[in-house]
């Protein structure tokens, strides 16, 4: 399932501002980024520097105020809500800082959820993923019956189950203790590499960032 | 539904699997609301259908009629012209026929056109009899008693055959035969109008401008009290439904609130917003249909249980026959489902709208509670203000619709203001309590009351509805009984069947009793409406007891002299009369010298002196009389009368007996109302329970620090219960003036619009006290489970609050 060396993310001069009491505040101020298939990119930066904002824009969860942004061949400047939803559903796996599982569904149902949404459910693959993530014994539990690290492993499994060409992870281990966080992150990187998936990983941890192919730093609204 | 939509629906619905109690509350809310609505509808529909059947046996009771305008005549030519113009009408002749010594009512109908008016009349004339019926000398139908009376009368060769199920004292013949028997020539009394007319008809003003169309209520009709009862039940049903809506609103709103995060996740995973909204709407519709169907069945069961009581109430009081069996009618099944869907839709609309507007990405911190709540309160004050402004407009608009609209405005305004008033009260209290625990308690109650406000509004509306309807029924009862006391002063009322019999009865009674008072009347148009004029003799019975509302001094003297007329309240109000105005009567106008109350009768009525009556209405039947006699002798005399003249039991009425029957009937009315009261309060209780359970889960972060600071869980639970009771008590207090206002609207606005009479309001402290206790009991029942849960909560659950803190 390699997506070749075509550009998966192509951003040029992205601008994003948020309204505030004292007028709009620019968060991203001309971000350029090009990402090839199979690459893994770590984004670091101070708190409030706009890392999550950038990730949300790439994932089509939010829209840019200016600049050009294309993800997996979809021009996000022109795509409507429906098209952006389709892009996320079919081709992107997302992992958030807060685990964002559906609390009323079991681990098994949560794991398979996005793959089923995309119409690509493969029980054997879900079982293999669960095994690799160490979740096989927990399949019948509900999210609230899991520890933080276990929940984050479910979220990673959900993002990867549909084998999307692009995975976006926003501080996936930020809520975990260091040891657990490292273990979970290593697992995620492993799985992503096996699938030849492109990864954008937002993290505070320089150790984690070092494991990625490339590292960029977000500062004053630009990447460096 | 696509596979994806099904997956989304399953994900949303899985919420309920984890929260079965909440689902139960939601379903119970819709179900009870629908049950109350459709139960009352069922009772009403069934009772109405039964009258309609009785009245329609000859097709006159519930159909509109065309009658000649004052001074005009209606002839067969008009009938022909209307039929040519496409109108579906059937002619009618009504009159009285001298039969030997007495008179019987003569009803002329036209069987061919009559059939088109509805199925009930098809059987009036069997097909085999048709030719004989319409061809002179004709065939008539009457019950056996009438046939006996008609023996020897000159009917121009008419054959009279016995037939059951006809109106009493009536001979039914073909319309042409009736015209001949009454020497009317081509004249008709009225044309009965089919309810369904072909489209594009030429208007009446064009075809027959001299005719007036009259709805059945415009005519004398014994159903007015029944109608009042129905109207009140309907108002009650509507109020109950609103109370039910509040539960649905809180449960649905909660479900939307709790699933905001899931909706975000779904959208982040690539489900388009439109699809999420569509699936949520579908989910709501499915739940509403399931709960609505269950509600209809429950309502039907409740109605079936109440039905014997209701049937007895109606037939006893108003003489209407109501069959005790209840049929599941498609109309109210559909209306029930419609209400369930509409209610759920109304409740869900806000949630859907908020979901649609919700940004995909969490917009940072939620507003601090106090700010959001204050904004909500301000908006509620504005809403209440707007409604309060609309209220007088609705009243000014007038009519029954205006009255009901004003009622709705007033109630909603009161409901919206409740949280504002509670909050103000708590703020006031906060500045006055001492002690850290008391201060925390008040502050925490203030915060809680925001989350409970919907439930408290539901409780308030339920209580207000109960106070309103209870006060109205109570006022109705005492006024009506008081009026009966005045109106039925005489010990016995005797109705003779024929005039000679009436004379014989009077002669026989005269030496044994204190007085015999004739009750003779004639049908007369009063201010353009069919009404009735009575003659009364000058007697203390009237002077001392008649329920006069307002009169000129010496009014009875004027009536006795024949220089004044008394009118009933209906006529007085509808015609906008004042004392001294003159009222047109056959034989000359008279000044109005007084007004009397006349409940249970929608049509105008007037009273003149007996001498004047005799002079002006020599043809009026002289059959009925009241008898004054020592009350102890009344029962024996009644028995003797029945024996002596072989009178049917109903011909001699013992006043004490009438009152006893009326009282019993009112007690039954009360028991129906009480059953509905319990149901409405139950609905409010469930609303409260839903609210409390909801808050319980969200409140842990507020309670955990207090627990950690050293309050036991039992103590916290007791405080929670105390809080619920205090809020319920405050709500009950608030509900009292609202309920009394509602009662006033029902008595002084709705009743006047619907029936023309106004009932004086009688406040029952006992009713209010009982409802206050019921409110506390409801709150106790609703608060017990959440309090128990809190008392039993595990420390680890409380500790999680701290662990989850970030
Ligand atoms: N919906 C929003 N409305 C207004 N301002 C926002 C919104 N989302 C983000 N911001 C602002 O944009 C800036 C960047 O936020 P962002 O969440 O992207 O930072 P971040 O780099 O992810 O920080 P952290 O490391 O703490 O997660 C912040 O100043 C934040 O307050
Ligand atoms: Mg962030």
From TrEMBL, chain A:
The organism's place on the tree of life at top rank: Bacteria
InterPro entries reported in the protein's UniProt record: AAA+_ATPase, ABC_transporter-like_ATP-bd, ABC_transporter-like_CS, ABC_transpr_LolD-like, MacB-like_ATP-bd, P-loop_NTPase
Annotated SUPFAM superfamilies: P-loop containing nucleoside triphosphate hydrolases
Domain ABC transporter: 9-224
Cellular-component GO terms for this entry: plasma membrane
A Gene Ontology molecular function term of the record: transmembrane transporter activity
Keyword Transit peptide belongs to the record: no
Keyword entries, A-Z: ATP-binding, Nucleotide-binding, Transport
Keyword Transmembrane recorded: no
Protein name from the UniProt record: Putative ABC transport system ATP-binding protein
Organism the protein comes from: Paracoccus chinensis
Automatic annotation (TrEMBL), chain B:
Domain of life: Bacteria
GO CC list: plasma membrane
Membrane topology: Multi-pass membrane protein
Annotated keywords: Cell membrane, Membrane, Transmembrane, Transmembrane helix
Domain annotation MacB-like periplasmic core: ranges: 454-642
Keyword NAD set for record: no
Residues making up the signal peptide according to the UniProt record: none
A Pfam family annotated for this UniProt entry: FtsX
Primary localization class, coarse: membrane
Ranges for domain ABC3 transporter permease C-terminal: 235-358, 677-795
Segments passing through the bilayer: 235-256, 277-307, 327-349, 404-430, 451-476, 674-695, 724-747, 767-788
Compartment annotation: Cell membrane
The name this protein goes by in its record: Putative ABC transport system permease protein
Species assigned in the record: Paracoccus chinensis
């Amino acid at each position: 399932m390699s997506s070749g060396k075509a550009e998966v993310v192509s951003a040029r001069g992205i601008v994003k501002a948020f309204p505030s009491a004292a007028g709009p505040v620019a968060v991203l101020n001309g971000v350029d980024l090009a990402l090839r298939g199979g690459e893994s990119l770590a984004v670091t930066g101070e708190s409030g520097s706009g890392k999550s904002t950038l990730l949300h824009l790439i994932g089509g969860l939010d829209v840019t105020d200016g600049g050009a942004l294309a993800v997996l061949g979809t021009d996000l400047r022109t795509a409507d809500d429906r098209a952006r939803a389709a892009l996320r559903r079919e081709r992107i796996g997302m992992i958030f800082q807060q685990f964002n599982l559906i609390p009323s569904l079991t681990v098994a149902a949560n794991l398979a959820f996005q793959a089923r949404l995309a119409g690509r459910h493969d029980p054997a693959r879900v079982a293999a993923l669960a095994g690799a993530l160490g979740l096989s014994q927990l399949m019948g539990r509900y999210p609230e019956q899991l520890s933080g690290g276990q929940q984050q492993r479910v979220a990673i499994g959900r993002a990867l189950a549909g084998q999307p060409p692009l995975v976006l992870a926003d501080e996936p281990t930020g809520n975990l203790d260091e040891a657990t966080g490292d273990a979970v992150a290593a697992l995620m990187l492993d799985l992503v590499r096996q699938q030849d998936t492109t990864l954008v990983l937002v993290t505070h941890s320089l150790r984690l960032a070092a494991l990625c192919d490339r590292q960029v730093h977000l500062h004053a609204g630009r990447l460096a | 539904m696509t596979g994806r939509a099904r997956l989304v629906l399953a994900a949303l619905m899985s919420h309920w699997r984890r929260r079965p109690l909440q689902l139960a509350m939601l379903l119970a809310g819709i179900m009870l609301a629908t049950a109350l609505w459709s139960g009352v509808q069922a009772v009403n529909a069934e009772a109405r259908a039964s009258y309609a059947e009785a009245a329609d046996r000859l097709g006159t009771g519930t159909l509109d009629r065309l009658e000649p305008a004052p001074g005009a005549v209606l002839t067969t030519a008009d009938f022909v012209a209307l039929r040519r113009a496409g109108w579906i009408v059937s002619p009618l002749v009504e009159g009285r026929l001298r039969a030997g010594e007495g008179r019987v009512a003569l009803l002329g109908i036209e069987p061919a056109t009559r059939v088109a008016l509805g199925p009930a009349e098809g059987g009036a004339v069997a097909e085999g009899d048709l030719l004989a019926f319409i061809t002179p000398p004709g065939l008539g139908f009457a019950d056996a008693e009438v046939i006996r009376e008609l023996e020897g009368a000159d009917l121009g060769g008419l054959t009279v055959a016995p037939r059951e199920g006809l109106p009493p004292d009536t001979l039914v013949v073909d319309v042409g035969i009736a015209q001949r028997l009454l020497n009317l020539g081509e004249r008709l009394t009225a044309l009965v109008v089919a309810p369904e007319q072909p489209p594009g008809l030429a208007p009446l003003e064009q075809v027959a401008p001299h005719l007036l169309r009259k709805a059945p209520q415009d005519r004398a009709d014994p159903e007015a009290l029944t109608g009042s009862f129905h109207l009140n039940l309907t108002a009650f049903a509507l109020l109950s439904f609103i109370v039910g809506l509040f539960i649905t609103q809180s449960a649905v709103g909660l479900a939307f609130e709790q699933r905001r995060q899931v909706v975000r996740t779904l959208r982040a995973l690539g489900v388009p917003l439109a699809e999420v909204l569509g699936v949520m709407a579908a989910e709501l519709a499915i739940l509403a249909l399931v709960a609505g169907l269950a509600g209809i069945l429950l309502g039907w069961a409740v109605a079936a249980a109440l039905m014997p009581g209701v049937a007895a109430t109606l037939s006893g009081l108003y003489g209407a026959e109501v069959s005790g069996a209840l049929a599941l009618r498609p109309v109210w099944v559909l209306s029930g489902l419609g209400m369930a869907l509409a209610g759920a839709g109304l409740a869900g609309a806000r949630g859907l709208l908020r979901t649609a507007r919700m940004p995909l990405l969490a917009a940072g911190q939620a507003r601090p509670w106090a700010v959001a709540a204050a904004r909500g309160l301000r908006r509620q004050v504005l809403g209440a203000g707007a409604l309060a402004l609309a209220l007088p407009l609705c009243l000014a608009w007038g009519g029954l619709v205006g009255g009901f609209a004003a009622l709705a405005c007033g109630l909603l305004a009161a409901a919206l203001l409740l949280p504002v008033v509670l909050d103000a009260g708590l703020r006031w209290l906060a500045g006055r309590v001492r002690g850290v625990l008391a201060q925390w308690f008040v502050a925490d109650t203030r915060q809680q009351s925001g989350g409970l406000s919907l439930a408290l509004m539901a409780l308030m509306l339920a209580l207000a509805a109960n106070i309103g309807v209870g006060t109205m029924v109570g006022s109705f009862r005492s006024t009506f009984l008081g009026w009966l006391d005045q109106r039925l002063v005489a010990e016995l009322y005797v109705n003779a069947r024929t005039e000679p019999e009436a004379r014989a009865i009077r002669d026989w009674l005269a030496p044994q009793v204190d007085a015999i008072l004739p009750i003779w009347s004639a049908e007369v148009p009063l201010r353009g409406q069919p009404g009735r004029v009575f003659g009364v003799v000058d007697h203390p019975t009237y002077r001392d007891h008649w329920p006069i509302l307002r009169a000129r001094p010496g009014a009875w003297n004027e009536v006795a002299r024949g220089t004044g007329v008394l009118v009933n309240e209906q006529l007085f109000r509808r015609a906008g009369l004042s004392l001294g105005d003159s009222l047109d009567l056959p034989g000359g106008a008279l000044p109005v010298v007084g007004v009397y109350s006349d409940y249970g009768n929608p049509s105008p009525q007037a009273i003149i002196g007996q001498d004047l009556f005799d002079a002006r209405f020599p043809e009026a039947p002289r059959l009925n009389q009241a008898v004054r006699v020592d009350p102890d002798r009344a029962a024996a005399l009644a028995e003797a009368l029945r024996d002596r003249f072989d009178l049917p039991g109903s011909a001699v009425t013992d006043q004490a007996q009438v009152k006893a029957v009326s009282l019993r009937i009112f007690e039954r009315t009360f028991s129906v109302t009480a059953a509905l009261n319990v149901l409405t309060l139950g609905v409010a209780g469930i609303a409260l329970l839903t609210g409390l359970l909801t808050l319980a889960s969200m409140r842990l972060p507020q309670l955990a620090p207090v627990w950690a600071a050293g309050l036991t869980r039992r103590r916290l639970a007791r405080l929670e219960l105390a809080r619920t009771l205090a809020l319920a008590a405050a709500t009950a207090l608030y509900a009292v003036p609202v309920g009394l206002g509602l009662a006033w609207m029902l008595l002084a606005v709705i009743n006047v619009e619907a029936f023309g009479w106004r009932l004086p309001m009688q406040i029952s402290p006992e009713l209010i006290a009982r409802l206050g206790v019921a409110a506390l009991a409801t709150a106790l029942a609703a608060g017990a489970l959440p309090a128990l849960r809190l008392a039993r909560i595990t420390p680890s659950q409380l500790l999680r609050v701290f662990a989850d803190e970030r």
